[in-house]
């Protein structure tokens, strides 16, 4: 976290050390891969309730992510209030109408065609929780002095990955939603201008009849995403 004034480096012994054998390492890596390959983005949610404590713990997990200068430049707004969710849906769909009416361009719309997206976003009403993720472009001390945050997009991206993994581990599904532009979320969520909304996560249990796009199951093979350089 940011500390005003003179600070100095003070190392402490590494806590929570894990010392695994090569076999244990491979087993852990395999188990996590198996868990995460069963994560699916869904658009059809059940209205089944999810305890706020579960959402809070998953966000707390996201808060353990590494960040530039350890400034932790993120804020999460978890919303269960039906009226607020409806306002977010209405504002998001207004932006989506412009997007799909030509604002996105033909190439972008063609890329989205196999995903099956459109203007209507009922999941923003139905999912029991919406988590709005904000990136703090700069911070402010208690006496109003502004300070700089570092590697903000990278830091928030890592924390968002932690959050999605935590939600999946807790047995929940989520949908990443990025209406463009998203500045309306600052007012709806009562967040300062120093924060930039980067994503809405709709979170809950998948509907009994939930589907996923067939194309979403096609992942690049390992040899296309990995290069190993051995000395």
What does this structure look like?
The model has no long low-confidence stretch (mean pLDDT 94). This protein has 231 residues and is an alpha+beta fold. The two termini are 37 Å apart. The strands form two sheets. The chain has a four-stranded antiparallel β-sheet. It has one domain: NADH Oxidase. The protein is globular. The protein contains eight helices and six strands. The chain has helices at residues 22-37, 52-62, 82-103, 106-112, 123-126, 152-169, 184-189, 222-225; strands at residues 74-79, 129-136, 138-140, 146-148, 173-177, 195-204. This is Nitroreductase family protein.
Number of strands: 6
Through-space gap between termini: 37 Å
**Cα-based radius of gyration, to the nearest Å:** 20 Å
Going by CATH, the architecture would be: 3-Layer(aba) Sandwich
Predict the CATH topology. Answer: NADH Oxidase
Report the principal-axis shape. Answer: globular
Mean pLDDT: 94
Q: How many independent structural domains?
A: 1
- How many helices does DSSP assign? 8
Structural class: alpha+beta
């Amino acid at each position: 976290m940011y500390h005003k004034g003179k600070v100095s480096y003070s190392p402490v012994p590494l806590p929570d050390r894990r010392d695994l054998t090569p076999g244990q390492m491979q087993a852990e890596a395999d188990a996590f891969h198996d868990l995460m390959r069963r994560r699916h983005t869904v658009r059809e949610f059940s209205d089944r309730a999810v305890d706020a404590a579960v959402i809070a713990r998953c966000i707390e997990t996201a808060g353990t992510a590494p960040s530039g200068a350890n400034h932790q430049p993120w804020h999460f707004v978890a919303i269960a209030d039906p009226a607020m969710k409806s306002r977010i849906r209405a504002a998001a769909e207004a932006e989506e109408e412009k997007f799909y009416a030509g604002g996105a361009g033909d190439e972008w719309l063609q890329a989205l065609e196999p995903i099956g997206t459109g203007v209507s976003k009922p999941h923003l009403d139905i999912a029991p929780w919406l988590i709005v993720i904000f990136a703090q472009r700069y911070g402010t001390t208690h006496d109003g002095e502004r300070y700089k945050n570092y590697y903000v997009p990278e830091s928030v991206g890592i924390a968002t990955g932690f959050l999605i993994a935590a939600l999946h581990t807790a047995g929940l599904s989520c949908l990443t939603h990025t209406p463009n532009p998203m500045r309306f979320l600052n007012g709806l969520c009562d967040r300062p201008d120093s924060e930039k909304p980067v994503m809405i996560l709709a979170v809950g249990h998948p509907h009994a009849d939930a589907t996923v796009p067939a194309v979403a199951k096609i992942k690049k093979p390992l040899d296309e995403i990995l290069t190993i350089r051995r000395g």
